[in-house]
Amino acid sequence: MTADAKLSSYRKKRNFKKTPEPSGASNTKSNEPLFVIQEHDATALHYDFRIEIDGVLKSWAIPKGVSTNPAEKHLAIPTEDHPMDYAHFEGIIPEGNYGAGVVMVWDIGTYQNLKEDLWSMRTCYKKGRIELFLHGKKLQGRYALIKTGAEDNTRWLFLKMRDEYADKLIKGKTKSALTGRTLKQIAKATSKNESLK
Ligand code: MN
User: Fold this and answer.
1) How far is the CA of 59 from the centre of ligand 1 (A)?
2) Among 71, 78, 105, 117, which residue's Cβ finds the most Cβ atoms within 10 Å?
3) What is the pTM of this model?
4) Tens of pLDDT along 113-150?
């Protein structure tokens, strides 16, 4: 499937005249595969974990966010593939639009597939067993996404794997990894300066 075909669900949910989110028209692959975690203050506050696989950002919503404690396994619910340029999206999705609320780039960086000797990321995703080494601004080290239970791809678990980065305190938890702003500051700045055409 082409990246365009994978993004059809993403595009159907959105009216790009009414939301500042990227349409993915200039969808480009990065040199090193990207990951991003966005804090999203929508109907319910949650975190969106996205990793680049085959030219799109595969995405999961994680209601409880991430933890560096390997004993904490957090539910991760798959959502639609997002375009590559979504990784740098920070701002307000206006009322009345899908996912309305403030979005912050909570962490961003590159990752390595820890299973790359055996399986491509596409295969890891299909198998429901993804093991990554994250090189983020906040998160470092080994993390896993594991599909659980039924075959319907609705439930995964996100967890820290044991390594020297386990149980480390996360610094700057309330601030954007891109701009250093809090959710409140993003909301204020965006509503003042960026009005939609
Ligand atoms: Mn979200």
Assistant:
1) 9
2) 105
3) 0.93
4) 999 999 999 999 999 999 999 999 999 999 999 999 77
